[in-house]
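Lecture 7 notes: from sequence to structure.
We start with the chain below.
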Amino acid sequence: VLQYVCPGTECQLLRLRAFSPSAGADPYRAEDETPARFGDDLIVFLHIQKTGGTTFGRHLVRNIQLEQPCECRAGQKKCTCHRPGKRETWLFSRFSTGWSCGLHADWTELTNCVPSVVDNKKEVRLRPSR
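Predicted structure tokens for the same chain:
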């Protein structure tokens, strides 16, 4: 079971059910049905080939229960994953930002690329320290 736990007090814990043999159970549905809340964190999805990453990446933009889920339109390859009331993204993946750091960027490429891509889209005074 994979889960994201926010380090700050702004986010709620998203508890996921373990896979069970019960028919029709959705392992990605939160137990308490309460949408997770946003902090200032940025999730960077590192896609390791042949590990189910495409399926998991699609899951991040289509199925995660959030107070403002990603907006996915039919026929578009990318979804808009903005924080509530802001024009900044909470997810850095090919399904939300495209191939901003190159095709199948590895850890080193992402480490060098993500801060510059994300920070270039913000005013200098609004850039978080990383």
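Points to note: The chain has two helices and two strands. The first strand starts at residue 43 and ends at 44.
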